[in-house]
Amino acid sequence: FAEQPTVGERKQVDNVAHRGATGYAPENTIAAFDLAVEMKADYIEIDVQRSKDGELVLIHDTTVDRTTDGTGKVGDLTFEQLRSLDAGSWFGEQFEGEKIPTFDEILDRYHGKVGILVEMKSPELYPGIEEQVAEELKERNLDKPQNEKIIIQSFNFDSMKKMDKLLPKVPIGVLTSNRAHTTPEALQEFSTYADWFNPSYGIVTKELVNQVHSLGMQIGSWTVRSQEAADFLFEMGVDAIITDYPDYVDPRK
Ligand code: G3P
Ligand code: CA
Fold it and tell me: Which residues belong to any copy of the GP-PDE domain (predicted)?
Protein backbone atom coordinates (compact mmCIF):
# COMPACT_ATOMS: atom_id res chain seq x y z
CA PHE A 1 0.00 0.00 0.00
CA ALA A 2 1.29 3.50 -0.84
CA GLU A 3 2.78 5.40 2.08
CA GLN A 4 0.22 7.74 3.60
CA PRO A 5 0.93 11.49 3.57
CA THR A 6 1.36 12.88 7.05
CA VAL A 7 0.80 16.21 8.80
CA GLY A 8 3.72 16.46 11.20
CA GLU A 9 3.76 13.03 12.83
CA ARG A 10 0.11 12.41 12.02
CA LYS A 11 -1.41 10.71 8.99
CA GLN A 12 -3.48 13.00 6.73
CA VAL A 13 -7.15 12.29 7.49
CA ASP A 14 -10.15 13.69 5.61
CA ASN A 15 -12.20 15.94 7.86
CA VAL A 16 -15.86 15.32 7.00
CA ALA A 17 -18.48 17.67 8.45
CA HIS A 18 -21.41 15.42 9.39
CA ARG A 19 -24.61 17.02 7.99
CA GLY A 20 -22.49 20.21 8.00
CA ALA A 21 -20.87 21.67 11.11
CA THR A 22 -23.74 20.19 13.10
CA GLY A 23 -22.24 20.92 16.51
CA TYR A 24 -22.65 24.64 15.80
CA ALA A 25 -25.52 25.05 13.33
CA PRO A 26 -28.69 23.16 12.35
CA GLU A 27 -27.87 19.95 10.45
CA ASN A 28 -28.40 19.74 6.68
CA THR A 29 -28.84 23.51 6.22
CA ILE A 30 -26.81 26.04 4.27
CA ALA A 31 -25.83 27.63 7.61
CA ALA A 32 -24.22 24.33 8.68
CA PHE A 33 -22.56 23.70 5.30
CA ASP A 34 -21.20 27.26 4.98
CA LEU A 35 -19.74 27.00 8.47
CA ALA A 36 -18.12 23.66 7.60
CA VAL A 37 -16.44 25.32 4.60
CA GLU A 38 -15.33 28.22 6.80
CA MET A 39 -13.88 25.69 9.26
CA LYS A 40 -11.96 24.14 6.36
CA ALA A 41 -13.63 20.74 6.36
CA ASP A 42 -12.50 18.56 3.44
CA TYR A 43 -16.03 17.26 2.84
CA ILE A 44 -19.59 18.06 3.82
CA GLU A 45 -21.81 15.04 4.44
CA ILE A 46 -25.43 15.37 3.24
CA ASP A 47 -28.54 13.16 3.61
CA VAL A 48 -30.62 12.92 0.43
CA GLN A 49 -34.34 12.00 0.35
CA ARG A 50 -37.26 12.90 -1.96
CA SER A 51 -40.46 14.94 -1.70
CA LYS A 52 -43.88 13.56 -2.68
CA ASP A 53 -43.62 15.36 -6.03
CA GLY A 54 -40.11 14.15 -6.84
CA GLU A 55 -37.70 16.87 -5.65
CA LEU A 56 -34.46 15.67 -4.05
CA VAL A 57 -34.08 17.33 -0.65
CA LEU A 58 -31.61 17.19 2.23
CA ILE A 59 -32.88 16.01 5.59
CA HIS A 60 -31.75 13.21 7.90
CA ASP A 61 -34.89 11.75 9.47
CA THR A 62 -37.64 10.25 7.33
CA THR A 63 -40.05 12.66 9.04
CA VAL A 64 -39.71 16.44 9.36
CA ASP A 65 -40.74 16.42 13.03
CA ARG A 66 -37.38 16.69 14.80
CA THR A 67 -35.59 19.25 12.63
CA THR A 68 -38.39 21.55 11.41
CA ASP A 69 -41.54 23.25 12.69
CA GLY A 70 -43.70 20.82 10.68
CA THR A 71 -44.87 17.24 11.03
CA GLY A 72 -45.16 14.28 8.68
CA LYS A 73 -43.13 12.03 6.47
CA VAL A 74 -40.71 13.65 4.02
CA GLY A 75 -42.10 11.53 1.17
CA ASP A 76 -45.70 12.52 1.95
CA LEU A 77 -45.03 16.26 1.65
CA THR A 78 -44.73 18.25 -1.57
CA PHE A 79 -41.64 20.31 -2.25
CA GLU A 80 -43.65 23.49 -1.64
CA GLN A 81 -44.74 22.16 1.75
CA LEU A 82 -41.20 21.10 2.67
CA ARG A 83 -39.73 24.39 1.53
CA SER A 84 -42.18 26.41 3.64
CA LEU A 85 -40.84 24.80 6.84
CA ASP A 86 -38.36 26.40 9.21
CA ALA A 87 -35.38 24.05 9.51
CA GLY A 88 -33.31 26.33 11.76
CA SER A 89 -35.29 27.55 14.78
CA TRP A 90 -35.24 24.21 16.58
CA PHE A 91 -31.46 24.61 16.92
CA GLY A 92 -31.41 28.29 17.91
CA GLU A 93 -33.43 31.42 17.16
CA GLN A 94 -30.54 32.97 15.21
CA PHE A 95 -31.10 30.25 12.59
CA GLU A 96 -34.78 31.06 12.07
CA GLY A 97 -35.72 30.88 8.40
CA GLU A 98 -33.17 28.24 7.32
CA LYS A 99 -34.81 26.11 4.66
CA ILE A 100 -34.57 22.44 3.75
CA PRO A 101 -32.04 22.58 0.89
CA THR A 102 -32.41 20.80 -2.44
CA PHE A 103 -29.74 18.41 -3.70
CA ASP A 104 -29.20 20.43 -6.86
CA GLU A 105 -28.73 23.76 -5.07
CA ILE A 106 -26.16 22.21 -2.74
CA LEU A 107 -24.26 20.64 -5.66
CA ASP A 108 -24.21 24.01 -7.42
CA ARG A 109 -23.20 25.95 -4.32
CA TYR A 110 -20.41 23.67 -3.09
CA HIS A 111 -18.97 21.47 -5.81
CA GLY A 112 -15.41 22.43 -6.53
CA LYS A 113 -15.20 24.27 -3.17
CA VAL A 114 -15.46 21.32 -0.79
CA GLY A 115 -15.86 17.57 -1.15
CA ILE A 116 -19.39 16.20 -0.94
CA LEU A 117 -20.17 12.89 0.79
CA VAL A 118 -23.66 12.08 -0.46
CA GLU A 119 -25.61 9.71 1.79
CA MET A 120 -28.68 8.21 0.17
CA LYS A 121 -30.94 7.96 3.20
CA SER A 122 -33.50 5.13 3.16
CA PRO A 123 -33.45 4.86 -0.66
CA GLU A 124 -35.85 1.89 -0.42
CA LEU A 125 -38.58 4.48 0.31
CA TYR A 126 -37.92 6.30 -2.97
CA PRO A 127 -37.96 3.97 -5.99
CA GLY A 128 -35.79 5.30 -8.81
CA ILE A 129 -33.86 7.73 -6.60
CA GLU A 130 -30.57 6.15 -7.74
CA GLU A 131 -31.16 7.19 -11.35
CA GLN A 132 -32.23 10.65 -10.22
CA VAL A 133 -29.10 11.22 -8.12
CA ALA A 134 -26.92 9.88 -10.96
CA GLU A 135 -28.60 12.27 -13.40
CA GLU A 136 -27.96 15.34 -11.21
CA LEU A 137 -24.27 14.41 -10.96
CA LYS A 138 -23.93 13.70 -14.68
CA GLU A 139 -25.55 17.05 -15.59
CA ARG A 140 -22.69 18.75 -13.77
CA ASN A 141 -19.97 16.41 -15.00
CA LEU A 142 -19.52 15.16 -11.45
CA ASP A 143 -19.63 11.54 -12.62
CA LYS A 144 -15.97 11.93 -13.66
CA PRO A 145 -14.62 13.19 -10.39
CA GLN A 146 -10.92 13.52 -11.28
CA ASN A 147 -10.74 16.97 -9.74
CA GLU A 148 -13.86 16.88 -7.62
CA LYS A 149 -14.30 15.03 -4.37
CA ILE A 150 -17.64 13.24 -4.54
CA ILE A 151 -18.46 9.99 -2.67
CA ILE A 152 -21.84 8.26 -2.51
CA GLN A 153 -22.71 6.13 0.52
CA SER A 154 -25.65 4.33 2.12
CA PHE A 155 -26.69 1.74 4.67
CA ASN A 156 -28.62 0.16 1.78
CA PHE A 157 -26.07 -2.06 0.01
CA ASP A 158 -28.30 -2.97 -2.96
CA SER A 159 -28.74 0.71 -3.65
CA MET A 160 -24.95 1.17 -3.62
CA LYS A 161 -24.44 -1.72 -6.03
CA LYS A 162 -26.87 0.06 -8.32
CA MET A 163 -25.03 3.39 -7.95
CA ASP A 164 -21.73 1.67 -8.77
CA LYS A 165 -23.24 0.48 -12.05
CA LEU A 166 -24.83 3.86 -12.84
CA LEU A 167 -21.69 5.85 -11.95
CA PRO A 168 -18.71 3.50 -12.32
CA LYS A 169 -16.14 6.28 -11.75
CA VAL A 170 -17.67 7.71 -8.59
CA PRO A 171 -16.38 6.23 -5.30
CA ILE A 172 -19.02 4.26 -3.40
CA GLY A 173 -19.23 3.76 0.37
CA VAL A 174 -21.07 1.29 2.57
CA LEU A 175 -22.27 2.34 6.02
CA THR A 176 -22.77 0.01 8.96
CA SER A 177 -22.70 -0.24 12.72
CA ASN A 178 -23.06 -4.02 12.58
CA ARG A 179 -20.05 -6.18 13.52
CA ALA A 180 -21.45 -8.96 11.32
CA HIS A 181 -20.42 -6.75 8.39
CA THR A 182 -16.75 -6.81 9.44
CA THR A 183 -16.03 -10.49 8.72
CA PRO A 184 -13.44 -11.18 5.99
CA GLU A 185 -16.23 -12.57 3.79
CA ALA A 186 -18.46 -9.53 4.21
CA LEU A 187 -15.57 -7.13 3.60
CA GLN A 188 -14.51 -9.05 0.50
CA GLU A 189 -18.06 -8.78 -0.90
CA PHE A 190 -18.18 -5.01 -0.21
CA SER A 191 -14.87 -4.56 -2.00
CA THR A 192 -16.42 -5.84 -5.24
CA TYR A 193 -18.33 -2.55 -5.61
CA ALA A 194 -17.33 -0.21 -2.77
CA ASP A 195 -14.30 2.05 -2.37
CA TRP A 196 -15.08 3.05 1.21
CA PHE A 197 -16.13 0.99 4.24
CA ASN A 198 -17.65 3.45 6.72
CA PRO A 199 -18.45 2.02 10.16
CA SER A 200 -19.60 3.64 13.39
CA TYR A 201 -16.56 4.14 15.61
CA GLY A 202 -17.75 1.61 18.21
CA ILE A 203 -16.75 -1.24 15.90
CA VAL A 204 -13.44 0.18 14.65
CA THR A 205 -10.22 -1.63 15.53
CA LYS A 206 -6.71 -1.42 14.05
CA GLU A 207 -7.24 -4.90 12.68
CA LEU A 208 -10.40 -3.80 10.86
CA VAL A 209 -8.58 -0.79 9.40
CA ASN A 210 -5.80 -3.08 8.12
CA GLN A 211 -8.29 -5.55 6.64
CA VAL A 212 -10.15 -2.79 4.83
CA HIS A 213 -6.88 -1.37 3.47
CA SER A 214 -5.65 -4.76 2.34
CA LEU A 215 -8.80 -5.08 0.21
CA GLY A 216 -7.97 -1.75 -1.44
CA MET A 217 -10.75 0.20 0.29
CA GLN A 218 -10.55 3.27 2.50
CA ILE A 219 -12.27 3.63 5.85
CA GLY A 220 -14.23 6.60 7.20
CA SER A 221 -15.84 6.49 10.63
CA TRP A 222 -18.63 8.35 12.45
CA THR A 223 -19.96 10.16 14.38
CA VAL A 224 -17.39 12.15 16.33
CA ARG A 225 -18.90 14.33 19.02
CA SER A 226 -15.91 14.51 21.40
CA GLN A 227 -12.16 15.11 21.16
CA GLU A 228 -11.60 11.66 22.67
CA ALA A 229 -13.53 10.00 19.86
CA ALA A 230 -11.53 11.92 17.24
CA ASP A 231 -8.25 10.99 18.94
CA PHE A 232 -9.30 7.33 19.07
CA LEU A 233 -9.95 7.31 15.31
CA PHE A 234 -6.59 9.01 14.60
CA GLU A 235 -4.97 6.26 16.65
CA MET A 236 -6.82 3.56 14.69
CA GLY A 237 -5.47 4.98 11.41
CA VAL A 238 -8.75 5.66 9.58
CA ASP A 239 -8.76 7.69 6.34
CA ALA A 240 -11.72 9.94 7.12
CA ILE A 241 -13.38 11.15 10.30
CA ILE A 242 -17.02 12.12 10.06
CA THR A 243 -17.67 14.67 12.77
CA ASP A 244 -20.22 17.15 14.09
CA TYR A 245 -17.22 19.28 15.15
CA PRO A 246 -14.67 19.86 12.35
CA ASP A 247 -12.37 21.56 14.89
CA TYR A 248 -11.90 18.27 16.80
CA VAL A 249 -10.38 16.69 13.70
CA ASP A 250 -8.06 19.59 12.98
CA PRO A 251 -7.85 21.98 15.92
CA ARG A 252 -6.03 24.51 13.69
CA LYS A 253 -9.16 24.91 11.57
O1 G3P B 1 -21.80 9.64 7.35
C2 G3P B 1 -22.12 8.72 8.32
C3 G3P B 1 -23.39 8.97 9.08
O4 G3P B 1 -24.04 10.09 8.55
C5 G3P B 1 -24.30 7.82 9.12
O6 G3P B 1 -25.31 7.96 10.08
O7 G3P B 1 -27.56 8.44 10.89
O8 G3P B 1 -25.89 10.24 10.83
O9 G3P B 1 -26.88 9.43 8.73
P10 G3P B 1 -26.44 9.07 10.13
CA1 CA C 1 -25.78 10.78 7.18
Answer: 13-253
**What pLDDT, on the 0 to 100 scale, is given for residue 8?**
56
DSSP 125-163: GSTTHHHHHHHHHHHTTTTS-SSS-EEEEES-HHHHHHH
Mean pLDDT over all residues of the chain?
Answer: 95
**Architecture of domain 13-249 in this structure:** Alpha-Beta Barrel (3.20)
Nearest one of 17, 15, 11 to 29, comparing CA atoms: 17
In this prediction the ipTM stands at: 0.98
For the Cβ of 64 lying below 6 angstroms from any atom of ligand 1, the answer is no
- The amino acid at residue 83 is R
DSSP-derived letter for residue 41 is: -
Residue 242 Cα: closest atom of ligand 1: 1
Strand partners, 218: 196
- C-alpha 220/C-alpha 149 separation (Å) is 14
